[in-house]
Protein: Succinate dehydrogenase [ubiquinone] cytochrome b small subunit
Organism: Seriola lalandi dorsalis
Amino acid sequence: MAAIVRLSSVCRRGVKPLWYQSTLLSRPLVVPHKNQEQPYLLTARIHASQALYAGSGSKAASLHWTAERVLSILLLAMGPVAYFHPSPVIDYSLAAALTLHGHWGIGQVLTDYVHGDAKVKMANAGLFLLSTVTFAGLCYFNYNDVGICKAIALLWSK
């Protein structure tokens, strides 16, 4: 009978379970060849190492992660503030925060799904263009129209 154990209950501060060693993360795969009577062995490896470009002592990734979480919490607080106390300061703060939040989110999607040097450069250029146009459009809306706060109030009033 098989037992399922949570990995977090086995991994206590610095203790790795036996089955998570890198030598045990490869599994053999037997593939028969057309012209041979005996099948030959292929090996599929699962890489459990960190990303190549991130150093193990890098603070930049940790600070970026913290900044993303702080911005998300600020956006949660800015919604009710924009409704109850509309002002140009809140309008432009929302324009900057929404643009930055979208830029970071789409950037993570591009990091996960776009591969190849030329494709990454094109995707990042498109992302910067999209973020710039978004911020400029929101600032234009704030300056020449009712602003984000009043627009939210108008949407919620109907």
User: Anything to note?
Assistant: The longest strand covers residues 26-31.
